[in-house]
Amino acid sequence: MGLALKNILLYAGVASAVPWAGSPNDQKPLDPAAGQKGPLKTGSSTQKPNIIFILTDDQDIEMNSLDYMPFVQKHLLDKGTLFRNHFVTTALCCPSRVSLWTGRHSHNTNVTDVNPPYGGYPKFVAQGFNENFLPVWLQEAGYNTYYTGKLFNAHTTKNYNNPHVKGFTTSDFLLDPWTYNYLNPAYQRNHEPPIIYHGQHTIDILIDKSNALLDDAIASEKPFFLALAPVAPHSNVEGDISDISDIEKVTFSEPIPLKRHEHLFPDAKVPRTPHFNPDKPSGVNWIAERPQLNKTWVDHNDYYYRQRLRALQGVDELVDGIFKRLEENGQLDNTYIFYTADNGFHVSQHRLNPGKECGFEDDIRVPFIVRGPGIAEGAVSNAVTTHIDVAPTLFEIAGIPLREDFDGLAIPLERVKQEKRRHEHVNVEYWGFAVEEGSYGGTLFWNNTYKALRIIGENYNLYYSVWCNNEHQLYDLTSDPFQLRNIYPGYADHDSSLTILGAPLIRVIDRLDSLLLVLKSCKGTVCVKPWQKLHPEGDVDVLPDALQEQYDTFYKHQESVRFDRCEAGYIIDAEGPQDALSYTRNGIHWSHWV
Asked: In the predicted model, is pLDDT for residue 6 greater than 50?
């Protein structure tokens, strides 16, 4: 077990865990909060570095799935850096993937669902992103670009050529309604017609296609970007999920592993953490109404968990094959390899059956591992990073000037010694439904729309959310890492004597709500430096600065985050206040911004 993997297991001590760079004997701290400007180191090569991006579907980190992937441990965790505080900003595949490839929050892409009218490939095209996203930008910078696997939902055997996806030298996409059918997948290469591979396992097909694309990329003798997107460990789905209102016609079942892996981990169970099927409900809205799971559901969910781990073994083999090819062709030392997932997943936590779409840690915190030139080996970084930061990071690797419409900040890979410390916040947002998966799945929960803030700093570790029915959640993860006690006023676990950073709870809530008010509509640099919107004179950079008593009157004048109604997509007139007050020493003034 690598050092990075051991650090993963410090589940409840994330905020205070000490990261180390290099081997255990080096005892050299990795400081994720410092940096240096300039291009990344690429060894002696004069060619721009290559980039390989492996993107799994629904992979957890909180349920320890990485523990069961020996090749990911060998090639990535032991030889790269794990970013332990990496989050998605929308816990649903299509919105998360669009944000990943555009560097924009979902409220700025307005792709907020898996299907039209609010999401999916047709919405991606309608928003103009087919001509304006990462592979197009990389090609303009001299890269060859390759992709195989799942790109977006509602990218189908009927609309794949209306229009074809732009920006790729070679592509071989999975297509709906066969994307999640493990044994009958449909792949579509370049501008050729789709092929349905009846009776063949999607991961073995993907491994072959990935190896072929890597061979082509290396042979081109140009810098390349290669994205590999297996569907594992997503549920197996049969039927057309393009009409979510007709979900009864869709069959959800457990992931289907390759035959050679179906016997593995016979005793594995969902980790029995404190939030596993708790004795009392947690959360708000529909989550608070979930009954405790009976034995039938618990047993089913343990089986579902095992099938997830088994399905990931094919992905693990994919990783091993990619590294072997890179090494054999002398490309390993000039290639950055990223490994992550489009969102996390829950199985039995908070009494929830298999699914995602919630704001809990299980769903928004995901694996994010990077290996490449100059990146510390076997290290764990506690820097707060998100999928919004990925496009700026790849731009920096490729030596491309950053775009003004990026909502994120390049991730501190190996060079962070001379910059101010990284921001502390994550903007989390969701619209529409949640769905239970697995053999007993298919149940939809509407009004799952919420805006949330995740904030991590020295001696504070908080989650704050406002739902579209205007219920609230506040968790102090320092004392409650499993998010079981909602301490927001008016809920059973609230205690008026509670303090955070020595401040009364109501003062902390005022600041969190104002920060969320800025983030839920932010664009560009405001998303990176939201405190500067609230305090334009630069006297507040982090939550402790904002908690000074002198700002109490200012924050009490601020409008609160609220919804006027629940909607299934991003409809601004349903989302309450959009503008935030700004503080100056001469008094409060109103600042409109877009």
From this structure: no
Measured distance CA(33)–CA(512) in Å, rounded: 22
285, 410: one domain: yes
Q: Can you give the CATH number for the domain in which 291 is found?
A: 3.40.720.10
- Please compute, for residue 367, the number of CA atoms within 13 A of its CA located in the half-sphere on the CB side: 31
Q: Taking the CA atoms of 309, 311, 314 and 319 in sequence, report the sign of the dihedral they define.
A: negative
CA distances from 135 to 142, 143, 266, 369, 436 (A): 11, 9, 41, 21, 33
Strand 144-149 and strand 170-174: pairing?
A: parallel
Q: What tokens does 154 get?
A: 């509602």
Distance, CA of 534 to CA of 547 (rounded, Å): 13
32: left (phi over 0), alpha (psi -120 to 50) or beta: alpha
Within-domain flag for 426: no
Q: How many angstroms separate the CA atoms of 121 and 110, rounded?
A: 12
- Which amino acid, residue 164? H
pLDDT at 405: 96
Q: Is residue 57 part of a domain?
A: yes
How far is CA 440 from its chain centroid? 26
Given 93, 94, 522, 566, which residue is catalytic?
A: 93
Q: Give Dmax (Cα) for the chain.
A: 71
Residue 269 tokens read as 């169970």
Q: Where are the beta strands (DSSP E) in 315-438?
A: 335-341, 368-371, 379-386, 425-430, 434-435
Contact 277, 298 (CB under 8 A): yes
Cα separation values, 105 from 178, 240, 259, 385, 522, Å: 28, 28, 39, 13, 9
d(CA 346, CA 435): 12
Instruction: List, edge to edge, every strand of the sheet that includes 144-149.
Output: 195-196, 186-189, 170-174, 144-149, 224-229, 50-56, 335-341, 368-371, 81-87, 379-386
Note if 522 is an active site residue: no
Q: Which domain holds residue 508?
A: 449-591
- Give the pLDDT of residue 589: 52
In a domain, 84, yes or no: yes
pLDDT of residue 479 exceeding 50: yes
pLDDT, tens only, 513-531: 999 999 999 999 999 999 9
Mean pLDDT, the chain, whole residue set: 90
Nearest residue to 309 (alpha-carbon basis) of 252, 347, 261, 237: 261
Higher pLDDT, residue 128 or 441: 128
- Neighbour tally for 489: CB within 10 Å: 12
User: Rounded distance, CA 54 to CA 489, Å?
Assistant: 42
Question: Please, are residues 179 and 231 in contact by the beta-carbon 8 Å criterion?
Answer: yes
* pLDDT, tens digit (0-9, with 9 covering 90-100), for 305-332: 999 999 999 999 999 999 999 999 999 9
Number of domains, the chain:
2
Question: What is the per-residue pLDDT for 439?
Answer: 82
Taking only the tens place, the pLDDT of each residue in 368-403 is 999 999 999 999 999 999 999 999 999 999 999 999
Which pLDDT score, from 0 to 100, does residue 250 have? 83
Task: Give the relative orientation of helices 390-398 and 93-102 as an angle to the nearest 10 degrees.
Answer: 30
For residue 29, whether the previous peptide bond is cis, meaning omega lies within 30 degrees of 0, is no
> What global pTM score does this model have?
0.92
Q: What pLDDT sits at residue 247?
A: 65
Residue 65 within any structural domain of the chain = yes
Average pLDDT over residues 144-160: 97
Q: Same domain for 385 and 459? A: no
Asked if residue 492 and residue 346 are part of one domain, the reply reads no
